[in-house]
Amino acid sequence: MEKVKCILSYDGSRFSGFQIQPGKRTIQGEIEKALKKIHKGTSIRIQASGRTDTGVHAIGQTIHFKSHFALPEANWQQALNTLLPGDIHVHQVEKVPDTFHARYDAVEKEYRYYVWHAKEWDVFKRNYMYQFSYPLNLERMQKACTYFLGEHDFTTFSSAKATIKGSKIRILRDVTCTKIGNKITFTFRGSGFLYHMVRIMVGCLLDIGQGRRKPEDIPELIAKRDRRLLGATVPADGLYLWQVDY
């Protein structure tokens, strides 16, 4: 048996998230379907760096699987891309030691969230950016980003529906907000992320950009560890799993 690591991208618009679900189209389901064909009917289970929700996209998701086939890496890539639907693509394949695990060996992840800041609705961006028409103060949002840096308990910025048990302490090394034209890019790099964490943080930053909150409110929000203090979670459409580092 050999272990194979793949880096892939996908357009999450037409998927019910990453994790396999009966009767629903999922990324895991499509990849395992392709692997089953390659293995002539034998089911192969994949492991991912993490699961993404319905509508969330990926530029650099990482998975691994075990196979009794000894194919060259280029052949794995070609075989998978031939069988996968057009909204999933394998960019890189690498054979890894048996000790490697796509989830547990990840040391840092980067997510990006895109906001299209314009008065007019753009039908071509509806599945790929959060379209936001209200005035925003970019400098206030950029200042607010700095308060997220470092090690914190991010309970306030985690979904109340989260099933995770244990510590909600995470380390964020990079949080930025930039704007080019009408496109605002929020970038988050850290040791790990809680359920809906990025989308809740973006919602908070947009509130600050509108003047509903002050940048200096963030330390207090973190300290109170209460999701109810913040507004709605922003849509999944603008969220991208950008990169996973090992």
Structure description:
The structure is a single chain. Helix 3 crosses helix 4. Strand 2 (47-48) and strand 3 form a beta hairpin. The chain is an alpha+beta fold and 246 residues long. The chain folds into 2 domains: 2-96, Alpha-Beta Plaits (2-Layer Sandwich), CATH 3.30.70; 108-245, Alpha-Beta Plaits (2-Layer Sandwich). The longest helix has 13 residues, at 197-209. Strands 1, 2, 3, 4, 5, 6, 7, 8, 9 and 10 form a 10-stranded mixed β-sheet that branches. The protein is globular. It is built from 5 helices and 10 strands; from the N terminus they run E-H-E-E-H-E-E-E-H-E-E-E-H-H-E.
Please identify which CATH superfamily of the largest domain we are dealing with.
Pseudouridine synthase I, catalytic domain, C-terminal subdomain
What is the straight-line distance between the termini? 22 Å
- What shape does the CA trace take? globular
Annotation, overall tally of beta strands = 10
Mean pLDDT: 97
What oligomeric arrangement do these chains adopt? single chain
Give a quick precis of the structure.
With 246 residues, the protein is an alpha+beta fold. 21% of the residues lie in helices and 30% in strands. It has five helices and ten strands.
Task: List the main descriptive attributes of the protein structure presented here.
alpha+beta; 10-stranded mixed β-sheet; 30% strand; Alpha-Beta Plaits; globular
